[in-house]
Amino acid sequence: AEIAGSLSYVAPSAVRIREGARISGPIDRDSIAPWGVGSDIRARFFSPLVRTVWMLMTGAIIIALAPRLASALNDTLRRPALVGIVGLVAIPLVPGIAVLLIASVVGIPLSMLILTTYLMALYLSQFVVGQRIGSLILPDRWNDGSRGYLLLSMTIGVLLLSVLRFVPIPFLGTLVNVLVAVLGLGAAVMLIRELRPDRSGRVA
């Protein structure tokens, strides 16, 4: 190959350049590491390791302030097939509804609220799925619904999902992200539906 300029790439080890290949500029390699790629602040601030720490902190806050909500989301995922179907439908449907509301002009505030809630649900999907994975790993007799149990199961699951993203298998990280988003959003939608008030004014 012939490159009329510099070569920059990301890899765990140096690339092998065969004889006859010509690179006019310098060769710059960044290593793959959990704390990010590159040395700039933005790369470090949004590195996989930092995002995992953020999720653990966010999950801990949710469990501390709303343990019943965390437990309810965990129970919702006991039906993963149904949750997955709901999530697959909700991922394109919710933004579509928001776009229609924006087009109506009058519905712009509601559209902003829907989009904000949608993005929050996608972000927290790792917390929801991670907590469920952790509860499946831990013994059933430990499940007393306490904050300590919820925190332990969430930590185990979130860390396991983060580790899976670093397994050197093509597209595994993308597959994990898609499954987590679908299941997490589906669980949120189903929980909202179950908490809706019935005709008598009571919560279902």
Notes on the structure:
- With 204 residues, this protein is mainly α.
- Helix content is 63%, strand content 6%.
- It is built from seven helices and four strands, in the order ββββααααααα.
- The strands form two sheets. The protein has a two-stranded parallel sheet with strand order 1-3. The protein has a two-stranded parallel sheet with strand order 2-4.
- The longest helix is centred in the middle third of the chain and has 30 residues, at 108-137.
- The chain is globular, with a radius of gyration of 22 Å.
- Residues 198-204 have low confidence and may be disordered.
Summarize the structure.
The protein is mostly helical and 204 residues long. The chain is 63% helix and 6% strand. It has helices spanning 41-45, 48-65, 67-76, 80-103, 108-137, 147-164, 172-194, and strands spanning 2-3, 7-10, 22-23, 27-30.
Question: What is the secondary structure topology, with strand pairs?
Answer:
Elements: E1 2-3, E2 7-10, E3 22-23, E4 27-30, H1 41-45, H2 48-65, H3 67-76, H4 80-103, H5 108-137, H6 147-164, H7 172-194
Parallel strand pairs: 1-3, 2-4
Helix pairs in contact: 2-3, 2-6, 3-5, 3-7, 4-5, 4-7, 5-6, 5-7
Q: Which parts are unreliable, with pLDDT below 50 for 5 consecutive residues or more?
A: 198-204
The percentage of residues in β strands lies in 5-15%
- Overall mean pLDDT score? 82
User: What share of residues is helical?
Assistant: 55-70%
Strand and helix order: EEEEHHHHHHH
Report the sheet with the most strands, covering strand number, pairing sense and barrel closure: 2 strands, parallel
| Major sheet strand order | 1-3
Number of continuous helical runs: 7
Q: Give the C-alpha Rg.
A: 22 Å
Morphology: globular
How many β-strand stretches?
Answer: 4
